[in-house]
Batch of 3 targets.
Target 1
Amino acid sequence: MKTNRHLKILEIIEKKDIETQEELCACLNEEGVKTTQATVSRDIRELKLTKVSTPGGKQKYTQLREEKAIMIDKFHRIFKEGVVRLDTAQNILVIKTVSGMAMAVAAALDEMGWPQIVGSIAGDDTIMCAVKTNEDAQDLLRQLNRVIKEG
């Protein structure tokens, strides 16, 4: 339900210049997505929407895709530059980093949003990631090695 509402919000702000939360709420209700202004407010925060000026001098909600792409590139660079070695121990992903980089690499890893990761703990040069299953850990290991190789 929430995912559908988020998708509908993104669709609406692509088609229309939505200036207020109330206006967005009304559009959602017109589209058959019954919601409240308080829920729309939370959705705006979760989707990281922002307002930009339109040529007519008004403002509208938009999603900053370019900024997100830039940030993902930054997180990949931090990960690539900080990681020394990756390994698994069943469903635990062990990431060895340059000394003092574990916290930064763990934060970048969190921001990359890998759904297989349940949680992470970072020390000075090691990160332990609890992964949902042994198979997920192996798949994640392959994907992260690709991030390191591709840059």
Target 2
Amino acid sequence: MISKYSDQKKVIKEDEIQEAALEIKKGNLVLFPTETVYGIGANALDEDAVKKIFVAKGRAQDNPLIVHIANIKMIEDIVMDIGTLERKLMTKFWPGPLTIILKRKSKEIIPNIVTANLDTVGIRMPSNRIAQKLIETAGVPIAAPSANVSGKPSGTKVEDIITELDGKVEYILDGGFTDIGLESTVIKVEGNKINILRPGKITKEQLEEVAQDVKIDKHVLAKVEKNEIVTSPGMKYRHYAPNTKSIMIYSQEKEKMIEKINEVIRKMQQENKKVLVVGRESNLQSYQTKRKWNMGETLEEVAKNIFTLLRKVDKEQVDLVVLEGVGEQGLGLAITNRLIRACAYNYIII
């Protein structure tokens, strides 16, 4: 069932949230919006319910899930040993797009399937009103990865994901476009240091306002090998990727980047191959191909648009997609992380 909404302002009736919460209590799946992307959620305390997430997504079971809470009382019930720095992060960034890796109390409370058999669990308190109300009404923490079939770009609006998930969930809360468009920042505190495991809207620079020592995990911009264990979701397996061959090209000097992209275009055209460029609005007129898509101009616009664009790529039936890079400053790090994974680490930085 798809709940109705009147516009893009995420108008969802109270009885719809009540119905969705009832499905969570029954051990079923609900697709719902957060401020980052849509999630496919189940009762995090119910092992059988959580198993349904992995089946619906085709997700590997060594890929941990994030547990969403509505208030601090919920976190006290499921984790322990919360440090001073972690509490400062909660105070500053919750509710919001920050996931904190914490030590779970026991597998009897949070089952192993949620944590990929690790003794830690990622916890987040979403700021989206619909998500908050759903968790509060269900009365249980909700385990929810991004709403998509594993390997595909995350869903930022129901229209993008309904075909692949219809019939796999019991209830869909359609709140229109999500606000941010990229999944949450995932961090783990080690001593007095913050380790960014997955970049998102909450940037390294913002985290440095809370702790001086903030590092970026090596896996953010590098491949995770098959035998490596990761504590953050969404970092190990193929993700965000269209089937069409893709490449990301970036230079701090705009002219160099444009010239390199045109060089790739010319080479492909000489071989009678079709190229699609996905780039900043201000750069599109410079590219020597008819096929070019606007990803937005600001980093916030790019973040919100990129998953929807990646989902449409294969319909163009081109031989190569060239994605403009955006650099690694601020929100750019999160976008770059998604782009290089969408390209299967096929990228050029000049």
Target 3
Amino acid sequence: MAEPVRLLNEDGTRLFREYVDRARKGSSEALPLHLLTDHATSLQPDFAATIVNQQFASRAEFGRYLVGAFKDVGRRRISREAGVWNWLALRYFDQLCPPSDSGARKVLATGHYVLEGRFAHNRYYRHLVRAAWYATELHGDDATILLTSAGKPSPGIGQWGEISEQLAGYQDILGSRTAILVAARLFLDHTGATKRGAASPDGGGSVRRLSTVLRQLAMTHDLRTAELGEVVAMLPNEFEAFRGGPNPGKKRSLLRRFIGGAEASG
């Protein structure tokens, strides 16, 4: 059943954060879903949007769903609205942190679920719900590389890994379609899975090294207008094992056209 999106207010956010902190320490207490509708902890926003508490197979599917749910709400209106993302994180918490048979959850850092204070990119980019929406809002189907989780064939929506951290953590990279396409060209195979070695923390040609190189290139090149092939050609030899890109796939997006080897600009 569809339900209207609300916002967690300061009290609701505080209580949700305290719940997350206890869950991180092993608490198996019930999820405080009453915070979602209690007028003491939540507010009706000045926009209309509804969601359904359905199951999602991946972060990419989750991102597409959220973009659809907020299609009539301007990006600027909700992008920095912490109350929206905290409300949604509570609503989908059973998927973000599925409970075990004992009720215990594997909980990441609190900032992946709860936003507080004024907007700051170095906090907001890690929020699992907002990150899925924002990446898809910016890049559509080409956001797959931002929402992948290396080594986890069925990651669900609660994963955060090295690829997400290194690409989404820098505004010059996250905001550049060409940079995202370069990462996809290098690190996704023809099935959309992450190639072996892409997320190595210290390996040559890894996503961490790509992040460093792209930020260096951004000092002298406009990554918003550069062409995919141009940027790939400028990468150092350590990326040679990845440079060939994945095999051709379905051509439903720029990513798939690039994967297929067609020429296009960023």
